[in-house]
Design goal:
CATH topology: Multidrug-efflux Transporter Regulator, Chain: A, Domain 2
Low-confidence stretches: none
Radius of gyration: 18 Å
CATH class: Mainly Alpha
Number of helices: 4
Order of helices and strands: EHHEEHH
Number of domains: 1
Protein name: Transcriptional regulator, MerR family
Organism: Psychroflexus torquis (strain ATCC 700755 / CIP 106069 / ACAM 623)
Shape: elongated
Pfam family, one: MerR_2
Number of strands: 3
Mean pLDDT: 93
CATH architecture: Orthogonal Bundle
Structural class: alpha+beta
């Protein structure tokens, strides 16, 4: 069962951020966000809002196209994964040093 409290209607995001619905559809097409359709309405999980805000800024302020946004976010995910692996490795190393 999907908790509707954790979902935000796309139309609400479009009005709040003054963006076109097509921008959010394109983000979904690039697998940068996940749009859910429930009873003929489209929603996005509230966890995506921070990412959507960053993508809007990239697009409007830096004039980065959808392919560029996709590349940047994939690189950011890789960096985050590498940072997590580095922390894990450092923690293991500390165990052996003691």
């Amino acid at each position: 069962m999907i908790n509707l409290e954790s979902l935000i209607p796309l139309q609400q995001l479009c009005v709040y951020y003054d963006i076109e619905m097509s921008f959010l559809i394109n983000l979904n097409n690039f697998d940068l966000i996940e749009i859910r359709t429930i009873e003929h309405s489209q929603y996005v999980h509230k966890d995506y809002v921070v990412h959507i805000e960053k993508m809007i800024r990239m697009h409007h302020e830096l004039d980065i196209n959808m392919e560029g946004i996709d590349t940047v976010f994939n690189l950011l995910k890789k960096i985050e994964t590498l940072q997590e692996e580095l922390i894990t490795t450092k923690n293991k190393l500390r165990l052996y040093e003691e």
